[in-house]
Amino acid sequence: MKLTRLASALALSAAVCTSVFAADTVKIGVQAPITGKYANEGQGIDNFVRLIVDEKNKEGGLLGKKIEVVTCDDEAKAQKAAVCAKKLVNEGVFAVIGSYTSGATEAAQTTYYRNKVLQTSDGTSDSLIKRKYWTFFRNSFPNSAQGEFTADYFVNQKKYQRIAILSDYSSYSDGLANSVVDSIEKLGGNIAFRGKIKSGTQNFTAILTKVKALNPDVIYYSGYYTDGGLLRVQQEQLGIKADFVGGDSNDNPDFLKLAGKSAEGVYLVNVPTPDILPYEAAKKYLTAYEERFNMKPPSIWAVVNADGLRAVMEGVEKTKSFDTKKISDYIRNDMKDFPGITGPFNIREDGERVGASLMVYQIQNDGSYKVSFNK
Amino acid sequence: MDIFLQQLINGLTIGSLYALVALGYTMVYGVMKLINFAHGDLVAFSAYVGLTIFSQLFGASAVSFVNVIIIFLLTAIIVAFVGVLLERLAYRPLRTAPRLSAVVSALGAALVIQNGIMLIWGPNMQIFPADLLPSTTWNISGVIISFTQVCILALSAILMIALYFFINRTKIGTAIRATAIDQDAAKLMGINVNRIIMIIFVVGSMLGAIGGLFIGLYYRSLTFDMGWVYGLNAFIAAIIGGIGSIPGAMIGGLLLGLFNALIAGYISTEWAETFTFVLLIIILIVRPTGILGEKTAEKV
């Protein structure tokens, strides 16, 4: 009898202690590839989150609570992502920003959903919202939107006759390539080749030689810049005179470094680059980012993730609570044209971001971008 | 036809790289009966060393033929030194220990080198400068060969022939062959086995260093874990050719490169790696000693 009383007293004091701690801080998680192939992008996301959180803390925090950022490195691997999700949930975060890749995002989704933790990611794979988790919303645009846009550009603008499509095996890249193929076929275009490369193998001459035999007008690659830059170099070395069009994840300064002189003339499909975002919030945050980290954000992806975080904070402030269900309802139903860094931020019922604009850039000989198609 | 020839050239290029790396495996195995799993990571390390030498010494100045030679020489020397160090620290203390201990030590050394690369140069991809070698390409009736490819093919052929003569025609080569057959008997004949093993590691690491630099020059992107892929392929090449046999490693490397390119070009790029392992399994079943490996009767 005495023992149970002691135990309950202990439990009570423990509860009091945790609630005292909980009163002054609130935790936000970052799940991103801090090391590994996409370390560059993951660190960009982490930096941007910390920038915004520090600013918020200076203003007095969220509903009077200081925000603490907990980062977990998923190395863009699904297995690590699942571990990260458990770790962040145990840390007691109420929202998670990330991850960068669709595969890692998807692997973590269910854990966050079961634990009622909000998650927002720049992953563009269409499969991310198929489970309709209320905890998840996307801060970038989906693959299918990019697929339709790319197909329209290929078939109606450039009038390519023979189109070669390449992807890697990741759920993002494969999904994007498939939606480009579907959209091209709907428009009556001609897919001459559809193949996959293994990311990181460096030697793509075998598949490119195969493509060369088909004499394509364009090679489209839907994977990441680490392979895209090499594909472009090897395409030129093999003397394949096709245009090279890269999907959004090729849009990274390292693509230019890898491709070197061969980068000239490459087309990239993406949302507007951070530099030319015409919005009020963009000027403010991008300058702040550059001042603090002495560099530009690695790409647009860090910026859309920052918008995801800002939308979560807006939800907390408008609903005056940390109840994730309420925040999610607010973001989906009541938030209209929230002024994001990447433009007006609206989330549909299923968690999809609507109204993102896309562009085609062409890389010039000095490495700068020129907008070549805009809708 | 030109497509077929193009695939052959692609295959031979990557095959020569595998062969250069495989020589390091095979020489160490031949003498020490040890599979040096750290060799692949040493190759990756050499690419990073080469990049650092370039950016430290010649980053600003124009690239010339002499500069490239200096980069190659310095890298080979540094990597040879690390190779010898590796043998001293990871393998020599275990020379009389059970075989498994040495294998575990080799795997440990591989992890140390890999993580060392990550600590020194960071986890991000590093990029080799584009203009180190001229980007000239030749078009021979539809088949494209680049200057880098010619360099890789020519230099690896020269190195392999030189190695062959070194092993078969010189006094040190004879000592190496004697040590490979029986270390104790070699000792009785006055051969300094420790010195022979050091030479093996110096030569093997230098060949690996040149392979690693070529990988950097040819593919341009370096990741800290790239050693694993090349190490594995070179290991398979060494087994196909007959591990322990020097001409075997060369033939195995070239065959593996050609096989990969032709499978990727004519059957499926997605399955090229699977076919590599199928080939390995077939070789192990049909001819377990590899193409040029000798069957040695175990004396009881």
TrEMBL record, chain A:
Family: Belongs to the leucine-binding protein family.
Gene3D superfamilies: 3.40.50.2300
Keywords tagged on the record: Amino-acid transport, Signal, Transport
Protein's name in the database: Branched chain amino acid ABC transporter substrate-binding protein
Biological process per Gene Ontology, one example term: amino acid transport
Domain Leucine-binding protein, chain residue ranges per copy: 25-367
SUPFAM superfamilies per the UniProt record, alphabetical: Periplasmic binding protein-like I
Record bears the keyword Transport: yes
InterPro entries documented for this protein: Leu-bd, Leu_Ile_Val-bd, Peripla_BP_I
PANTHER family xrefs: AMINO ACID BINDING PROTEIN (PTHR47151:SF2), LEU/ILE/VAL-BINDING ABC TRANSPORTER SUBUNIT (PTHR47151)
Segments forming a coiled coil: none
Signal sequence segment: 1-22
A Pfam family it matches: Peripla_BP_6
Protein species of origin: Halarcobacter bivalviorum
TrEMBL record, chain B:
Source organism of the structure: Halarcobacter bivalviorum
Any one Gene Ontology cellular component term annotated for this protein: plasma membrane
Gene coding for it: livH1
Name this polypeptide is given: Branched-chain amino acid ABC transporter permease
GO molecular function, a single term: L-isoleucine transmembrane transporter activity
Family in the record: Belongs to the binding-protein-dependent transport system permease family. LivHM subfamily.
Keywords from the named record: Amino-acid transport, Cell inner membrane, Cell membrane, Membrane, Transmembrane, Transmembrane helix, Transport
Top-level taxon in the UniProt lineage: Bacteria
Keyword Cytoplasm listed: no
